[in-house]
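Homework help thread (please don't just give me the answer)

Our assignment gives two proteins as sequence + structure token strings and asks us to describe the second one. The first is just a warm-up. Here they are:
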Amino acid sequence: MRSASPISVVFPPLFLLLLPAAACAGEAPLQKVEITAASGLQQRRDDTAAKIIVSRDDLAQYGDGSLAAALKRQPGVSVVGGEVRMRGLGAGYTQMLINGEPAPPGFSIESIAPEMIERIEILRSATAEYSMQAVAGSINVVLRKGASGAEREWKLGAGRQDGRWQPAASLRVADKLPGFAYSLTGAVERTADDVAGGTTETTSGPAGTPLALRDTRTRNASSVNKASLTPRLHWTLDNGDAITWQSLLDWYRTGFDGVASETVLLGMPTAYPRNGATSQASVFSARSDVSWTHALGAAGKLTAKLGVNHNRRDTDYAFHGAAADGAPLLLRGVVSDAIDDSVNSSGKYLGRLGGGHALSLGWDGSLIRRSESRRQRDTYLAGGAPYALDEDYTADVRRLALYAQDEWDVTPRLQMYAGVRWEGLQTATEGRTLSEVRTRAKVWSPVAQLLWKLPEQERDQLRLALARTYKAPATRNLVPRRYTINNGNSANNPDFQGNPDLRPELAWGLDAAWESYFGKSGVASLSGYARRISDVTVQRLFQRDGIWTASPFNNGTATVRGIEMDVKFPLRTWWAQAPDLDVRANAGRNWSSVAAVPGPGNRLASQVPATLNLGLDYRLSPGMSMGGNLHVQTGGLARLDAHASSHAGVRRTLDAYALWQPDAKTRVRLSAANLLRQQQLQGQSYVDEAGRSDSVTRLDGSASLRLMVERSL
């Protein structure tokens, strides 16, 4: 184990300084706070752990077809290429949970239809009960639960984007009987797009002399057909015990067809100036678990859970390379698959003790195996020996965690949470051309949180949290399989290869927040955070036999910090005669610095620097409402190493919706996404003593319309 970070020595006294003042404040009478908003707001206010609740109604409000689209409007959340991030940090720094359990390998949040979700919890700091792989925070997806009575609901709809129809449908059936309850939610959907774009590549010598200039026009069409099913059974036994079985099944099939045409204005062309690619992929994902709850007297409860996960992806890919005149040169066929299987077990004992204490003890363990195989066959149509490459790898990850935590109501105005979690991690990677490589790591993770309701106040409170978290290597990054570039391999467009020697990253973090609750449903908060990360993962970019390859490795430390603001309230809170209008706004600013990478722009994991959301919801009548949201996400320079960097443009999206409720059981929702149709910009640069090369890609933006009809039976 490594020695304690200086942050761990400095931060704990802050709790000790606040404790006496807060305890004295407990002598003042606690005033009643009137909050009649949804229970999610009450839970956010009362939970010791900082948590934002996104309800099912919030997820459905804009009629989004994916969870990522809905989450981007939440405080401190950004979305990059379908990856949901907190504090702007991707690449595994944001932990995804399903019903409180770490999401299995291969999981994509895009695979879950919003209709499957009961609520989403955004946790800004870690807790001992959940995995501590939450450097940036956690997003917990809670699946739909059983109903209090008979429930029947269906939704039908269709959208249109890039001239393509996108139908969708879902059905939910649920009921509660004596001693037994069940629910079943199913959804099917097809999405498709057709995106045009272009890439400009320039190369110059040491003195800035232009050496090459190429412009490539692209057109990529893709489609996704997916189906999801969430069955849930719940039994209440005669002795008061409860058994719950819940599963999440996802099937989806993707298709891709892309073409590229290159124009050379200066210098030499790439190997295949005209090229195209087609692929079909099928993915099946299954998650199933059984939990048992047993009461131990009047003040104790034991919960145990056993689950299995399976994810399989099969891909058939073909690349056609041709000369500038269209003469065929290369036919490359690749057949690959990746299988992620895991078994996990968890359990918790919860006991209510005297003096306002609630003690929890538990365990959490999993066995994960990732298997990959790839078969590549190249045929050179202009002559030349065919090429064959076969690769097989497996990576095993074993994890065991033990934890204890205590939630303590010190006074009516002061709540404290303290916990510790031990996690052991072992990885083993081997393949056809790789001898077995093993790594071991053990992490002690203390965590403490404080909630102090200020004296003589009925609405303001302060939060403080300290935690040690970590980020384990993704199994994909442990497998040394090379993901190759078909055409134009360069420093700005390298192959990728995993590293079986990767170690976990360790982090100390501090979170602080001020919150104010006012009126019937108003809330305002201002928060800040800081992280210090050791053994941070950075990129190693190297050239071997003329081929550029990028690979991850551990190197040094990084610091992360930022501030967030969140406010929402009905306008009538301040003006009684105002229209029935709700105002929402949130903003976040993030900074980071990687010690091993020279600045400026040495941001961790290409961190999103800033996010902004401005939203309005207007109720014209009890049966008619509408609203809109402006989302802004900045980019800028991000240094990857001493020579390579990337650049992302600012992204602005405007979404709107209108909802009509002709009766209590029917809803008609019209939504529009990305009304600004802003072009996306992404660039890469590489600079060394031999000169400079730049690549800038622009993708056209498109708006989409979606009409949904919802009916409860």
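The one we have to describe:
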Amino acid sequence: MGKILVITEKPSVGRDIARVLQCTQKGDGFLYNDTYIVSWAIGHLVGLQEPEKYDSRYKSWRMDTLPIVPEKMQLQVLPGTGKQFNILKKLMNDKSVSSLICATDSGREGELIFRYIYRMAGCKKPFQRLWISSMTDEAVREGFSRLRPGSDYDLLYESARCRSEADWLVGINGSRAFSIQYNTLLSIGRVQTPTLAILVARHHEIESFVPQDYWEVHCTFPGYKGVWFKDKVSQNRIFEKEKADFIAEKVKGKTGRVKTVAKQLKKQLFPQLYDLTELQRDANRRYGFSAQKTLKLAQQLYENRKLITYPRTDSRYLSQDLVPVLRPLVQNLEEGPYGIYAKPVLELSRLPVTKRLVDDSKVTDHHAIIPAKTKMKTALSEDERKIFDLIVRRFLAVFYPPYEYEETQVHTEVEGETFYTRGISVKELGWKILYEDKNTESKEDEQSLPPLEEGQPAVAAAAEVIKKKTQPPKPYTEAALLSAMENAGRFVKDEALREELKQGGLGTPATRAAIIERLLEVGYVKRQKKALIPTEKGIRLIKAVPEELKSPETTGKWERALGNIAKGTMSPERFMGSIIRYVNYIVSEAAARRVHVVFPKEQYRGRKKSATR
């Protein structure tokens, strides 16, 4: 029997797997022993062919050559990767190799990387799939003990191929058509353009906002404070200063009464485990990390440190088969800085496992991000430590009881005017004990209240009129934009379609960071501290393109369709047919319409990465 060639996505992963398989002998771009050869890609080695390779007339950008829709999409070896591709090609076709193992990242893009190499190399040999969620030695060994036929992932590959080809078609044709029409280099993308449109819409909301002065009347009673309101608690703004002054003077020094005291015991369950998008949001809110930086740090913790499970996941749940390993994972954290939080969990006779934590129906390619079985052996960088800390605390929190507090709402009446007071009394910190030193947020209406009873007198010792202004919407931070991309359906007016789009946002957890970086790279967006602000070029682009090209509705439906291809409920042909019709529409729309938009003069020569998401 011949040797088995294992192909990983990156050299570092290849070396780790080679170590587990005891491949100690070195070759040029691979490691081996008597049974296995382990080699690697360097991310994407193969991509879709450039337009001019199909036909030399596509070298120049002209409207009469559009749309560019090849009868069959061809592949090419990407610039700078030829050496490693040739090493893989030689190994794949070597007579001593009888079969292959695809060990690229366990996801849509990882599948695409391997299949494109396999196709470009002209390989016909059988292959199996290694599908793991952790890079620990134990997880790798276990993964090799339960390899699956490569054909089990054919639908995942079809979804990946359709995504790749759709991005190429929309990017190439959209970018060329609008660049030609407006005589400047414009980058159009299936996902990036609707994402830019979200930022531009918020920019226009802020620009058109007219601030308005208003006043609040705050009253001080013995041991607590209240805010005046009209009919509802939310109606506490007064838009005439004279009226606010009148109310304050009317009640100051007068004796009123406690009109109502309503107490309610409330519980707040633990926050769910992280998927990649939620981890990126939290890291942006707490530390100002970009989505790309968080992804890079998480990948390091997964691949190099082996401290967390696969990070490019869109699930916030665990699968049932992980339940037996939960206690050992907590035990791993018993020594060190998290011991104080792990100990109470380990003292439980049985870990609390509910549908909020474990639900096989909510786990897609990978479960939520949790700590791996590896104990920390080397010191982490400060930024790595911050991401690991987020993941560990979130993991331990799911085993803690709810946060319980008593909320007291008081209405105090003085001279016919009513004031609202909200008090919070913590009964059980529960899972929030893990975040006592992390939570810097405090709501101004949360206060400890003295014992109050309905009907008791209350003297308005002081009444103050406070001037405020209505505030415009805030610019998007990366955390807020990631939420908007994930929940693109909320930007759709049609109610039925909005419901349909709950499962399909803009991009995927694995690609959203790259989309944001792309918008920055092409000059459509700039960073101002934590905020993402569209540039003049980005604003003008959104004005120039038709609604269909910037609507989250179209791309959201496509993202959902790609998921359906992976599930086998939609054919790739049907999806690609819709993409080709859309591309034809983009080109005809660009040629026919001329919205008056003037861009700064720029030279465009060649495509310059215009085929993007």
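TA reply:
I won't write it for you, but here's a hint about the kind of observation we're looking for: DSSP finds 20 helices and 18 strands in the chain.
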